Amino acid sequence: MLGTLLCALFFHRMKQHRDIVIIGAGAAGLMCGIMTARECLAMGLDARITLLDGAKKIGAKILVAGGGRCNVTHHKVLPKDYAGASRNAIKKVLKAFSEHDTMRFFEELGVELKQEDTGKMFPVTDSAQTVLSALIDECDRLGVMIRNPWRVGTVKRYADRFEIESSDDRNEPILADRVVLATGGMALPRTGSDGAGYRFAKFIGHSTTERIFPSLVPLVVDERSSWIRELSGISARVNLQVHSGTGKRLASFTNEMLCTHFGLSGPGVLDISRWYLDAKDNDPEVSLVINWIDDVSGEVFDQELQGLGKRTVAGFLRERLPERLARALCEQAGIDPSSPGHALTREHRKALVQLVTQCAILIERDRGFTFAEVTAGGVPLSEVATSTMMSRACDDLWLIGEILDVDGRIGGFNFQWAWASGTVAGRSIARSLVDADSNQA
Ligand SMILES: Cc1cc2nc3c(=O)[nH]c(=O)nc-3n(C[C@H](O)[C@H](O)[C@H](O)COP(=O)(O)OP(=O)(O)OC[C@H]3O[C@@H](n4cnc5c(N)ncnc54)[C@H](O)[C@@H]3O)c2cc1C
Question: Ligand 1: which residue has its CA nearest to atom 22?
Fold first, then answer.
């Protein structure tokens, strides 16, 4: 009797053909497609899963990530590596699919990963294509359809279904029972992530944060700090801090920094950029401060300078910094680099200590979304249930990945967010089909 009932329920489910449409086949969308399909298969549910993407070639961001090597995750992922939404809420999503789950997932797909000294995880092939191909192959294996280029123009909610219209007249509208917004943010808009998803979300009843701005973005220095541009090509491990107008330390990162023809770049600058830009919006007096010898305090450096004796200042600085940089710092402090330490006046010494350990750089602007790796701001995470990623504003809708107000620092954290939120949504979509079936039964 029980067997017959279970059988009837199984066939009932098989008959209930559902259309699940995921808009955006980036990291989050691909992961969501795979996880939804796997769960549906495991539960004996019949679902047609379609990924729609406006790009001619999908996975552009996966391919450019990590300099073409794709830093898929970090060996240790913590909520404090993220900004935007509340860290508690972020933690819930990350816990449901951890960095270890990501490593296992890719290994099962045949993508072996390696850990670098920085803690970043890369495919052993050092090729992002390995990661993208594995995801696409898994979609194929599971029967997840990828339709591209299929740029979505509008998403409308009717009583029990969604209608998705293309911005291209040649594509017929698509009806869907479940919809996932995985359209990303606005970083690197030429890849197709241009903020259209915010429009869809708002139309359906969501909001976006007051500010949506580039994160992990290079910074253009002001004319008054243009000496930095002369150092183009020089990189150094530095400590970068954001100070409020009153001198309070708001953020601090120690990492490599690269001086360029426009200003500052490199991982340290990308990481601090988010905090600088955020603070600058509220406080025009905010400053970016560099300690060129990150582990040495001003006091210690001052004492070292006082003990130089006959050694030249430039010679001393060269032990720690590239020669061109050492010379530039001396020049900025008004010191002849070849002068011996004992000849330094107190004023010159203080000026050098300030420049080396507390060098305030005036920033004109950031380089915008075109050069940003990620978007700060978006749809508030509080507008989805973090146990499912399901919208609180609209039934049968899920939001995942960068469209949400969550951004990570450099190191694989943004992909980890995409994999985790995509997985949570995928599992929840399958469960929602079971729930709908049992309500009907
Ligand atoms: C240069 C660069 C390097 C990076 N390196 C790393 C790294 O090494 N490690 C890391 O963790 N993170 C990295 N990131 C960040 C990471 O790539 C993103 O956070 C992540 O890809 C976001 O995934 P997503 O699926 O949410 O969005 P996206 O990857 O942006 O995908 C969104 C998809 O939606 C599609 N789409 C948008 N609008 C529409 C529409 N209207 N109709 C149809 N399709 C649409 C887009 O074409 C796109 O394919 C990097 C980013 C950049 C720009």
Answer: 402
What is the atom index within ligand 1 of the atom nearest the CA of 59?
Answer: 49
The CA 27 to ligand 1 mean position distance, Å, reads: 7
Task: Provide the whole-model pTM.
Answer: 0.94
pLDDT for residue 425: 98
Computed from CA positions of residues 97, 377, 399, 110, in that sequence, does the dihedral angle turn out positive or negative? negative
Contact 184, 54 (CB under 8 A): no
Predicted confidence band of residue 16 (pLDDT cuts 50, 70, 90): low
61 lines ligand 1 (CB under 6 A): yes
What distance in Å separates the CA atoms of residue 212 and residue 210, rounded to the nearest whole number?
Answer: 7
pLDDT in tens, 34-87: 999 999 999 999 999 999 999 999 999 999 999 999 999 999 999 999 999 999
**Does ligand 1 come within 6 angstroms of the Cβ of 184?**
yes
Confidence of residue 347 (pLDDT cuts 50, 70, 90): very high
Q: Which residue has the tokens 């309070």?
A: 248
SS3 per-residue string spanning 45-61 = CCEEEEEECCCCCCCHH
Nearest to 250 by CA among 225, 282, 212: 282
The pLDDT of residue 9:
47
Distance CA 179, CA 396 (A): 6
CA distance 79 to 409: 11
When pLDDT is cut at 50, 70 and 90, the band that residue 7 belongs to is: very low
Give CA–CA dist 130/128, Å, rounded. 5
For residues 422 and 35, the answer to whether their CB atoms sit within 8 Å is yes
Output the CA 215–ligand 1 centroid distance in Å.
13
Asked whether the beta carbons of 29 and 51 are under 8 A apart, the reply is yes
Those residues with Cβ within 8 angstroms of residue 404's Cβ, 6 or more apart along the chain or in another chain: 84, 85, 378, 379, 380, 381, 384, 421
Helix (H, G, I), strand (E, B) or coil at 209: coil
DSSP-assigned letter for residue 340: B
> What is the secondary structure of 388-431 as a DSSP string?
TTEESSSTTEEE-GGGBSEEE-TTTHHHHHHHHHHHHHHHHHHH
Taking the centre of ligand 1 as the mean of its atom positions, its distance from the CA of residue 117, in whole angstroms, is 25
Closest ligand 1 atom to residue 55 Cα is 47
What's residue 12's pLDDT?
Answer: 47
Q: What is the mean pLDDT of the chain?
A: 94
Report the distance separating Cα 425 and Cα 427, nearest Å: 6
Question: pLDDT by residue (tens digit) across 222-273?
Answer: 999 999 999 999 999 999 999 999 999 999 999 999 999 999 999 999 999 9
